[in-house]
Amino acid sequence: MKTSPTILAADPIYSPDHPPLLVKAVTSWLAPGKDARLVLAYPLREAYLPQIGDLRQRLKEAGLSVVMEGMEMSRDDWAAEVEVRWSIWERSA
User: Which structural domain, as residue segments, surrounds residue 50?
Assistant: First the structure.
């Protein structure tokens, strides 16, 4: 199976089913080694905060760790201002 050195996931959480599915995809397709990266960004929507916490915990349990992270203000599809968290992850081992 061919893997990728970089995976980009933008706004991927809309259901409690999404964290385990995303982690499975990332761990299956992210190349081995410390140079591979997951770049993740998602708006901090009140309705999905539990799923975001679940995603971050599952990524850590899958052996990934945060290299860098931050917050930015952006606009959603309806022109409302929204806070977006971004993070860059690497394989811990």
Answer: 6-91
In a domain, 1, yes or no: no
Q: Partners of 85 in the beta sheet?
A: 42, 71
Q: Tokens 């916490």 identify what position? A: 53
| CATH number (domain holding residue 28) | 3.30.110.20
Please give the Cα distance from 15 to 71 (Å, whole number): 22
In the predicted structure, residue 52 carries a pLDDT above the cut 80: yes
Closest CA to 63 of 33, 18, 86: 33
* Nearest-angstrom CA–CA distance, 44 and 85: 7
Domains: count for the chain: 1
Q: Helices in the chain by DSSP H: which ranges?
A: 18-29, 49-61
Q: Is the pLDDT of residue 85 over 80?
A: yes
Please give the Cα distance from 47 to 58 (Å, whole number): 19
In contact, 65 and 75? CB cutoff 8 Å:
no
